[in-house]
Write a structure and sequence with these properties.
6 copies of one chain form a homohexamer. The first copy, chain A, is about 35% helix and about 15% strand. By secondary structure, chain A is an alpha+beta fold. The first copy, chain A, has a 5-stranded mixed beta barrel with strand order 1-2-3-6-5. Chain A has a two-stranded antiparallel ribbon with strand order 7-8. In chain A, a hairpin with a 2-residue loop joins strand 2 and strand 3. The longest helix of chain A is centred in the C-terminal third of the chain and has 23 residues. At the A-B interface, helix 4, helix 5, helix 8 and helix 9 of A face helix 4, helix 5, helix 8 and helix 9 of B.
Chain lengths: ~325, ~325, ~325, ~325, ~325, ~325
């Protein structure tokens, strides 16, 4: 059944028969008494809206809520240049009909990512620092949540496992920057592993819809991360680190957005915090550019220059031509 | 002779007898008819002003200009909390009395830096790209200038060889960011090697005083770099690259400051340009922070918190305490 | 045939039968299986969309691409308050059916404009400066392109010949400002003639659709203008000017946007560059205001106050009432 | 002894003989071998520098550190238009020679302020909310610290007890704004009482010198306040409030600076947080203006218009003339 | 008749038969020749658009202009999620069929508001100041206009009587801030009563449509208020106040927006002007937040967190949950 | 006597004996009981400070106030690189010893300037507009003040007659811009003549010290100009123009700074206001650049590139080299 082409990327006219996730159910009235139901459905490749369900077909939407899994049949059409799914059938599937990653975009490199992070942790020469990280990274429930959590709800790395992927990138880039700057690589590593832990409490993703939690909206992931670290560190007796060491770790979390106007309550004051900020920024911003370059919607005429400005990268237009040079970005085996 | 302690860093009261470079000669009149001469002299560790030369001693300054090498004797004092050199003797030394690097701050890793850059160039899989870089990097006069040029006149890496050091950092960080972002590492490398070539024409440093050239002031190093690339590429027949490839390389230079308000005539539009911008920024900004942390002047009371805000890092205050954790930043042999 | 009223400005209901230029061809699917084709067509007065072509009429669009000239028949209607062309017939016309200016907005004063610029050039007292300008302005292919090029793709003077008109305005205003400021009028004139030459390589307009070229997007017209000047000056032997003179001319181009955040890689550092910047700005901004005041769309209720804010002039609202005073702006014969 | 006029405000030439606090001890060398010691001393009215102590008098400074209490004798002079204390004698006084408020600026209304705050707390209709506030405001050590803490180190209310005074102002203004806006006055009161508690850990003042603590520099008073509330609330079993209620209280602290660029990690999202922000801002900013108007230094010529711009109020110039109208600001007994 | 539920707030499907005000009449053409008329109608609860009137029903719109009162019958529907009124009948009602406040949102507390303002005026101890205020506030035509005028056309307090309500809030908050800041409360009161008088000439509201007048658009309410004060003060002989006193009052009007970028020609330079600015700002901004919290449209899913960002409050998202604590904001009888 | 070289520009060591204006008298105390008096004196070429007057010479300052004319003898010296006048004699001269323009910088082209403005006025085709201008420009006391008033206190055209000179420049540039933009040249002329009339009440200059008046500080020259126009127009019966015409003229004054953040209460909404803004800006900004280029202080080493950034032109560095081209800016007889 899921052998059918994914409706997010298939050509117009393709027939569809696949499991999908319900993101939105909206009952609308059109002029002169016509009423219908419009759904937004998703797969691991993204989301798509349906053509309205008219008349008796509206009953197909009975019982649907955000997060319901459905089996959708129909074909791909478009309306005003926007692709839509024209349904010929729809029925509710059992909740365990498919794993979440089959229905929502996600990463696939979890095991290798964990290996990289865990080896970096084990290589720490300062046992105190390692034990602070262990409070999180040796906790199975933390790991389970962390490897699913997206890195943002609509921005960079907004997919299941995106936070883990972003963390690996920050660790990797942070190591290179720390080397150039002469910063303490162990503190930078600790910062990379701790800087976004607050997103576990700031985001909800279990329904497949990525949203801010109430606490995420009211306090933000930076404050939540500071509180999470504080609460975990309050338990061990004797304490795992001195007050100053705690302040240095908290400072890494508090300042990683770099500037007050980006939501950091303080600007980086240590070399390690400065390094962490640039590693975080480089991962987030170049990832946004890479994602925009991969979106067919910005290159309507298939040329190298995007046909409109792109909000994800501050409304720039972007260019994906390369000349005659062959790209080497996917070449395997390079150090 | 140069075994005497360097007067830039020695304790107050230390006797001085060493070769120094003249940075400034100023004749001043004080109230009630007193006149004197004040000099600014430098060594490889920085600069220092002298106490005024009164009466007959003013003749010591005859014939001095910026760039003269002198042998200065005296002792270290201070005035209003600012350190000064109280001269007891001064005479002009021959122009070849000492190499420039003995008189001006400079880096010491030139050979290793060249090795790293040249091996990266040789590993390029795209011969066309390599030949463009060779136009600069196989040119001995380019190499001679490049390895001396500072990376800025008063900002980050403002020392002899600072541009080469900065380039190595951008190459290293750029490689890590390109890996995370899935960018073409060869283009990023080319951008790292080309982005600041304009500084060779924008800065003058041969007198030991770092200054903007006229062209540097009127056009800036970005425009000068674009013109340098254009002129070198105009010579080979047939041309080394297509028009689009040239535009892509020029775009890397033109956009590497990232934002218009930082002097980029265009913002990055390719993934490689975005990666280069973040690598350049991370190298420059973390280097500024590291330099500020190493300046004793900001930590007047020897505590961990700087006693005033620091203009090099956007007027932040900075912190250099570490708690009990031993720093590992200088540990050798780490990958 | 072209005696029929221009469909861009005629009243609703007017019949249409005229040559038009194809700007856009879009095939759309509406709900419940309906599909159609929508065109955007243009004349010398602007552009208009068509009502969808349904059923067999879709075949009318076969073979149309951007830049095709068509003969369109029908009448003017509107949909949701937006004017549209309801076609009753459409067929492709020969490529030479009409000159570009009959199909795209353009200026009409070319000859007078050339006279003004050429006389100003000939009156230069400094022959060296004149010879630099001659490299461009005595080149017939440059003149042919320059007198067609728009001054922007969607902003001020966005019409065929707009760049020539803008240049004349900058020359005229620049002369008045230079007089007030005591600036060198010859250098200001040179700057006015050179500041936007890069637009010839930054814009494409031959299809009647104004677009950025790849080089225009990647480098911008300022960098392209600098490169064009550099390449033309590289040819003559002996060189037409000294290095400093070249830098002064390049500085006029490089700084004419005035501020880094408007894309100037350097800010004006000479009085002539400052004068040029203000002349350029005054021409561009007051032209935008004049164009907005002439757009009926902003004065829906025919009153003197625009009914909404206008993006071309930074989202201001504008006013076109005059009281009892008769306007003298169109009075002929005034110096 | 302290009957002698306060040297901060007395006219030039006034003899001085009073207890003062040492703020700074600096040993300086002047040109040509002269050395001396300069002190900064303070009283309840502010601070003043001394003329240099030359020769044997330098021994007067032996044993002085920041915070030492001294008995200073001499007269008031000035140097370059800046007032200075010309010492004729100085000796160290016992640490208990005078209470801190006799040596450092401070408020005098502590008891009335506490009454106002405590009555407001007792009038709360929601017992849960009151119990949260009691965790702080029923704690004697909290009260002792709170009534001494300044509201800033160099800005508004920078005096002993300034934080308590600022809190009373925020409570009073917040009540008026809440009434106008229809906000929940009890939550606004809770926010006013909690918003700046972090300053107890962010500021150090016990030596009479107001400084940031390490934690204050690295995390800021907002983050410290969030952590303090979290830690105090972690103790009671069962918890004093629900998770959402805690988030609402934390949100009041986190957002009270109103904008990210002023250091709030989140912007106000509840009506009560919005009200608190405006009350806090109105108290801080009008207090800064009132303090600037009371500084004789800005009205050098005794006219109504300040003779220079004033950094405390964003570099405005200010005006203190009133015309013929008598001021009623000090009229007693008004509600 | 007006017992029927108000169509702005009633549930979908509710039948409607009520007097309404015409805000907009628009004749539109749809594709394939269909034409219709769409109206925007309003009541005291807000505005709503109608479904298009097709065919013969278009005649219902004959004779309608902005400000016409109509009796509208039909039922509430929706189109694309936007509520609309589906008319079954419409006829023009006499101009006196209902008072303006029955047709346009308005406040209801006018008498109490006047009492508060008039008592505050009478309590002034400085008779000269009172007589200046009397020039406006004892003028019956001023009072009639002032109690109807909205405080903005689309922002805070945008309802009949909104200006009077805003004035009362500024008086109340201003009194609290003046008390905290030690400002002259009488001048602050005078400023509160005068600061927005220019809105009487800047806004038109008599048709029930709130609009800028020509003078309001060309000069703004601040300049108009300054001119109104100047003209009223020009009449009495002898003058009611000295030149400086006049300047102080004009300064209160001129500076009340606080910053140049918000349209104040000067920034506050007196303590009273600073106080007035904060009182004005607190009233306007917290009122905007309160109005946004009361808009059902932002809480589509009925949860506590707004489902999208809200332009009225600078694109923040907002939160209206309260936990278990009962709100006391509506408790009567509190001081 | 005044044949002696002007001390502002003469070389160091030059003897001085000339009439000067007292700008400042300051009595200072130096360390160890030394007291002295420092003066700031001025001539038509600028200002200079004196070396301190010690001992009995302090009596020379008895009776001096700002604006006193003195005969000063001595020679030019310098202290810390700042030029100072070392007095050997000083006595008070009679108040009529020299006209103000001999003692304060001023322009010299008054008569030609008036001719240009008066002819432009007389050429107006709309008599109503001319009569409004006559209210000011036919008033002898207005003319007397206008031809002396500086255009700013410390910025552009800050000299006696600077306002008249600036007005002529705005008229001239405005005419060129209006021509290019198709604006009504008569309204632009009216705006140029009225836009800065408020400076007559905003500035005081009769003592030779340029200062803000109280009204100038509290209201600014824009508001004062609006009030001046309003009051003059209130007198004639019947009125000289309609309400809308008055609003259009007031709008020209109110909006001429162009942006709110530069103190315009409204932005330009008419084409004429837009033109006036650019003419005003071009005159003010290019004049500032020209004045900076003429200041020897920025070109310490006599090279073409300023040795430091210059606050008058937004902290740019500037360049005054010209290459081989001869400047034509001073060529006579050009139109």
């Amino acid at each position: 059944m899921t052998q059918a082409p994914d409706p997010i990327q298939a050509p117009l006219g393709t027939p569809v028969d696949t499991l999908m996730l319900v993101h939105q159910v909206e009952r609308r009235a059109w002029g002169e008494g016509r009423e219908g139901v419009v759904l937004v459905l998703g797969t691991s490749a993204g989301r798509i809206g349906t053509a309205p369900l008219w008349g008796d077909r509206q009953a197909w939407a009975d019982g649907l809520v955000r997060g319901t899994i459905v089996r959708a049949a129909g074909r791909l059409g478009s309306f005003r240049g926007v692709r839509q799914l024209e349904l010929s059938g729809l029925r509710i599937a059992p909740p365990d009909a498919a794993p979440l990653r089959a229905l929502v975009p996600g990463t696939t490199t979890t095991a290798a990512d964990w290996t990289l992070l865990d080896e970096a942790r084990r290589a720490l020469r300062q046992p105190g620092l390692g034990r602070v990280l262990d409070l999180f990274y040796d906790d199975p429930s933390f790991r389970t949540a962390y490897q699913e959590c997206p890195a943002s709800t609509v921005g960079h790395h907004a997919r299941l496992g995106g936070l883990l992927q972003h963390t690996v990138e920050v660790v990797t880039i942070g190591r290179a920057v720390a080397l150039a700057a002469g910063a303490d690589r162990e503190l930078v590593l600790a910062g990379a592993l701790l800087h976004d832990v607050g997103k576990l409490e700031a985001y909800a993703w279990s329904t497949g819809v990525f949203e801010l939690t109430e606490a995420g909206a009211l306090l933000g992931h930076i404050v939540l991360g500071l509180l999470m670290l504080d609460r975990r560190l309050a338990r061990p007796v004797p304490p795992l680190c001195s007050d100053r060491e705690l302040a240095l770790l908290q400072h890494l979390i508090a300042s990683h957005h770099g500037n007050l106007e980006h939501g950091a309550p303080v600007r980086p004051m240590t070399l390690e915090a400065e390094v962490l900020h640039y590693a975080d920024d480089a991962s987030a911003k170049t990832s946004s550019m890479a994602e925009a370059l991969a979106s067919p919607e910005y290159f309507a005429e298939n040329g190298p220059l995007s046909t409109r400005s792109i909000w994800q990268v501050d409304h720039r237009r972007i260019f994906r031509g390369r000349g005659e040079w062959a790209s080497v970005s996917a070449v395997a085996g390079e150090p």
